[in-house]
Amino acid sequence: MSSGIQRVMCEEDIIGQKASIVYESMLKHLVTFLPLPIGRCNFIETVTNVSCHASGPFEVHLSSRGTGTVIHWMCSKGHKVWVCNSQPTLKYGMHAGDFMMATNILLSGNNYYKVAHLFNYMNMGFLGKDTFFKIQDTYCIGAIKNVWEEKRSAAIQRVKNKDGIVILADGRMDSPGYCAQYCSYTAMENDSKKIISVVTIDKRQTSRNSVIMEKEAFVRTMDKLLGEVKIAEICTDAHTQIASVMR
Ligand SMILES: [Zn+2]
């Protein structure tokens, strides 16, 4: 089978490329009139070594794969004559759109299940959760951590010689406080409005007591920041455990 598949060879092949929602009916309408670069089926029977040579017009089949559509042209004997993809593909055949979707769900602060739900309502193909988490673990987490560490240390560098900085801090639970699993505690420097610390506490780090997670996160935040900058003031919400730690 021949193909018109476009491979992603470098960053520019996918980053910043325009994309749009395409309806399958429109795609089918378009490709039906498309002349293929080959006029005959070049399938060779493995046992007999006989070529098929069936000539066109070939039947067009569309199939959904992840966020993309794969188009096959089939000869009268059912051989795949030509294949084309609605998206460029990466090494090992991963759709560029699936890869970009997975990374951008993270980068835009979204949630896989919510976006998958939206796509389901739109009757649009979407990447499976295993693919999403594989991409997240393999390509995204490490890169995001590196960028965050770079940004954080640049923000700390800018304020580390200031005499007394003002910190704005608050914690956020992944679900209501009494049954939360995680608490992420964020601290912002008031003048620059730059985030200078994010600490995430897992309930298992506080003996499965979710109520004390925010206090624990606050303590860890302060332990780290006090070694890096001179703090004059901390503003948080009215949290009684944190107020007592401060006293
Ligand atoms: Zn054939």
How would you portray this structure in words?
- The protein is of the alpha/beta class.
- The chain folds into 2 domains: 134 residues, no CATH class; 87 residues, Ubiquitin-like (UB roll) (Roll), CATH 3.10.20.
- It is 34% helix and 21% strand.
- The chain contains 6 helices and 8 strands.
- A 4-stranded mixed β-sheet has the order 1-4-3-2, covered by helices on one side. The chain has a 4-stranded mixed β-sheet with strand order 7-6-5-8.
- Helix 2 packs across helix 4.
- The protein is elongated, with a radius of gyration of 27 Å.
- It starts with a strand and ends with a helix.
- The mean pLDDT is 90.
- The site of zinc ion has 7 residues, from loops.
Give a concise summary.
Helix content is 34%, strand content 21%. With 247 residues, it is α/β, with parallel strands linked by helices.
Spatial shape: elongated
What is the element string, with H for helices and E for strands? EHEEEHHHEEEHEH
Extract low-pLDDT stretches.
Answer: none
Chemical compounds bound to the protein: zinc ion
Strand content: 15-25%
N-to-C terminal Cα separation, in Å? 74 Å
Q: Please state the average pLDDT score.
A: 90
Percentage of residues assigned to helices: 25-40%
- The total count of strands amounts to 8
The biggest beta sheet is recorded as: 4 strands, mixed
Tally of individual helices: 6
Structural class: alpha/beta
Number of domains: 2
Cα Rg = 27 Å
Strand order of the largest sheet: 1-4-3-2
